[in-house]
Records
---
Amino acid sequence: MSDIEAAIREHHPALITYLTAGDPSLEDTKAYVEALDRGGADLIELGLPFSEPIAEGPTIQAAINRALDAGTTPAGFFELVDDLETEAPLLVMTYYNMILQYGDEPDVRPFVERAAEAGLSGIIVPDLPAEESDPLRAACDDHGLDLVFIVAPTTEGERLERIMSQASGFVYVQARLGTTGARADVSNATHDSLTRLEEYDVSEPCSDGVPKAVGFGVSEGDHAAEIIEAGADGVIVGSALIDIVAESDDPVADLEAKAEELKRGAIRGADGGTDADPIDAPEPEQP
Amino acid sequence: MSTSDHDHRRDRDSEATFGEYGGQYVPEALMPAVQELEDAYERYVLENEDGFMDEFRERMRDFGGRPTPLQRAERLSERYDREIYLKREDLVHGGAHKLNNALGQVLLAKYMGKERIIAETGAGQHGTATAMAAAHLDMPCEIYMGRTDINRQRPNVYRMRMNGTEVNPVTAGSGTLKEAINETMRDWATTVETTHYVIGSVVGPHPFPKLVRDFQAVIGQEAREQIRERAGRLPDSVVACAGGGSNTMGTFHAFVPDDEVDLYAVEAGGSSLEIDEENALAPNSATLSTGTDGVLHGAMTKLLQSEDGQIMESHSVSAGLDYAGVGPELSHLVDIGRVTPASVDDEAALNGFHRLSNLEGIIPALESSHALGYLEEQHEELGDLVVVNVSGRGDKDLETVLEETENRDLEAAPDVEVFGQ
Ligand SMILES: Cc1ncc(COP(=O)(O)O)c(C=O)c1O
């Protein structure tokens, strides 16, 4: 079992958080990540900024612009990861071109090697569908990294089965169509996605084996509760945390508190959930 | 038409790549739509299911004004002492080749049962063509356009709105084509179930590069027949400007199998081919000449990018060429040596604009003016019989040209000061 899957099982229901590295500086990111770790994040995604983030909404797009304006580079990003000591495993989220360009020629391997060396446990690439993922998948397998796939509301039938059968670490269930961004509620699309995942008879062994985490729009503890209660193994929160980075007078304290709120919500969802199908895991500790 | 039959057969292999270029690098939410489009491309475009291609050709004739003439340019022929022919895509309805693709895709969206059209535009020509096609076929339409481009191409913004299309300004980055594409992709990711994204050039995820090329291939098919009729043989060279490369691929496609015909893709050299490393800025849009391999907007292709993989802001006096990427098929044809990449700078393009206006009575788009600038600089290399594609007309560019001309001492320019009063 990979680090990522183990973390989700052990801390089920899991809180997965996203921050853009370098927003507003790499030193700040270090402090923020540590705050999320203390607050109860079970997995932490770090965004390596790319200039054309087509899957992101305005919040993360702005964070990426701030990080790029601050001069964030892949080299600096990996040094940050070298320095971080968190309980939660770390994943890098970035666009495919950033992975290809690391090293002397377009090739995915140098990036994956460096990611493994820095201690990252997995990679998420929003513009890399399963159809194009063989080279990165092979490199990740060689270095023991998970390649996390996204399942969208439009992913159905054969494609869904294929993705589920290739998934490792966890499956990122995109709750609604569109781009990332905090929303005020858990939309019907989120519920539909969750129901659909239950309904789909995805092939063995991954349907049972790989945890499902839901993201896109989650911003509050109550959303986390609702999502976990509906059957997810984890919730993913990004834009709501970036709003804190951008607006708070004391981001470190507020990020820690937000992580606590989200984690408490997730646990409440697991306790109250009658339909929930939690994977076999020890009872989570109260944060 | 034996050429197009031959081309159809060859294209039936529905591979997503051209050599190592192309592919489908898009968010998962878009993959089903891209695959649905692949299916529609194969059935309607390649197999002519339900008479799709017949309807497309008929509408291009009656609404679009095809075929366009291949005109012998008398004074250019004299000036360069060789036979110069102009393929007059400026005479297509709307004033540019862009309608060939826009009408094809909007019609395809209709056949696919889509309810809404979105598109990006740089120069505004593609947006205008899409707006016209959408009005013609009664489809609601929204266009994303960078702020900078809105300011430099106002006539096209007015035209889009006249046709009942919504124009959404995009303020991110330098407010040009790259940002407009990002924003259109975001809209598409939200509305993909009912909306078709009419991409404006031979770029984007498969099948767009092939689909757009096939709608544009009519340029080269006509030109090839016309030049054989007029000159009794194939040309020594064919010259077209390349932004994303749709008029280039459309003009070249029928000639690719003709090894004796040299193909020149002329990009925007801007103010310089040197990269401004400090500001991560390419003062040009010469992707084929100076770019490196990477992934942008759904495809592996040549790009203007930093060593780390960040996409650079590009530059050209001409909004329609101002893009850091280029079509994957062109990248491939350059790599295998079939297409020669070339570029001329802003000034040569402006001179090309004035020269064609003065000598031939044709006001070309600033994009097309790059091909004419190349003709001036390199005519000795181009052989005795040359076809230049005039991809569009320049009415939309008059404000820019007057302003840029006043700032420079251009040899081919008339005295533009009188306009300033
Ligand atoms: C007249 C004209 N020519 C050329 C172009 C460049 O596009 P492409 O390279 O796809 O033909 C444009 C783009 O707007 C245009 O308006």
---
Amino acid sequence: MSALTDDTLPVTPRAMRDEMIMFAAMAVLLGLVPMSGIYPFFVMQALCFALLACAFNLLIGYGGLLSFGHAMFLGTAGYCSAHALKVWGFTPELGILVGVAGAAALSVVTGFISIRRQGIYFAMITLALSQLLYFIYLQAPFTHGEDGIQGIPQGRLFGIFDLSKPTVLYYVVLAGFLGGFLLIYRTINSPFGEVLKSIRENEQRAISLGYKTDQYKLLAFILSGTIAGFAGSLKVFVAQNASLTDVHWTMSGEIVLMTLVGGLGTVFGPVVGAFVIIAMQQYLAGFGQWVTVIQGVIFVACVLTFRRGIIGEIAHYFRRSL
Amino acid sequence: MQALYAQLLVGLINGSFYALLSLGLAVIFGMLNIINFAHGALYMMGAFCAYFLLHLTGIGYWWALIIAPIAVGIFGMILERTMLQWLAGLDHLYGLLLTFGIALIVQGVFQNYFGSSGLPYAIPDYPEVGGFRGLQGGMNLGFMFLPIYRGWVVVFSLVVCLATWFLIEKTRLGAYLRAATENPTLVRAFGINVPRMITLTYGLGVGLAALAGVLSAPINQVRPLMGADLIIVVFAVVVIGGMGSIMGSIITGFALGVIEGLTKYFYPEASNTVVFVLMVLVLLVKPTGLTGRTA
């Protein structure tokens, strides 16, 4: 089996330095957005999806596990947060906590079931589990079915930051994104991450070396699902609603597409991919269903000719790890 | 009781579609090692093909049953030759992603031209045999009323499934096929054109999907997204069955349709989710699926 990612370069101090410079550049650039005149709502949305794609990439890029149901964490955390904020009247930080806890609990259960299988089977099980949840949310009273939970109050984070002000909200979302990103970055560069990569490359060998690979994979799955849930909770404050679209399997497909376009198994690829896809949806909205066709064409083109993705190609060209 | 029998019949019909579709998936998976995400879209193309034949050229249902699977099968073979072929030797997941992209393109194009609403397709009213006009109308079986067309779908798909099983498990061609799945290099050494066989197999699997599409056109309306949600249920069927044997996917397909129908009668709230719940239960007990081989 050929590896899913192009990760032949060793992690050297130089690679770490490159990535740190990239990270600083990204943080500064994103920090300047409110002063640039770019529509902040678009960037906030893209940031939520970028974090989601990074969480997804943690699984496929470093664990070799293609989850085709990652939308379930986005949607579940969204519903939990939205319900806590609107019906229970929780403060924002507690609302986020409820959402993240919901996604974490879900990832424990779904991870326990799906982690027993690999490759295509794993993809299909996660897909079917997320569709199971979709139908539950469709019928459960608290989600309000097709209408979703709307008009969610944004409130004051820690009683200080007024989230109804776009600039404040932007920096809170940005802080959330950067925090989640660093957590993932730390994970993949830890001994745990190294074991994860070895499982991706050759699970049998990892087992023979004495690693309980199922436990590593389960932990990665829970971590990925929880961070994806965090992205879903942040998204509630941006969109002020939680709806069925976030749980549907087409959303899972979009997450895969973002990561694939940016570069599977690259640190910054999912971020770039999320921005490209969200920008495409934003600016091509006038074309109606042709957007779906364009996304399909990108999928096909990426798989056939462009498997490394944008960042993967750049990193390969410069012989750097990014 | 009437309602129970009616739900059982609906279950059997859904089961027919599950069986035909998961059978096609199993055949394709066996040869190409690809989960064909485009299967739902190709099923939809089969239904649209029947619709076009009737409304553009006046060719009716009976010919559509033959022409649509062949036409869509040829389309599938072109896909295999131009795209899927290049993924041989790569991780299987790329096949899944590629076919997902193809499904998006096909469904998107149809949605652009036909919107999301359904187009009607009439049940054929010829030939006239013994007081019945084609497959229209129904008969009273005493305990329930059976619409002829629905009975026809169940019987016809069962025959097609068994014929496919016979072709693959009992004939010489099937033996080559199974051998090529096990060891393509060796089979090639015997002078058999394996790439051509792979292409034909993909065409066969796709043809089965298109056939299911034609069968479903008079029951469910012809819609661009008719296959999109169905295919997820079929994937669950495949996971439960385990993709091990051809017979496994046929039996699992029909059985799950019936179970779904029974759920609709006894506890309707769970009818959409029962297949997925079953999948979870089966996996907890037997991670390889009911008849599965190891991944």
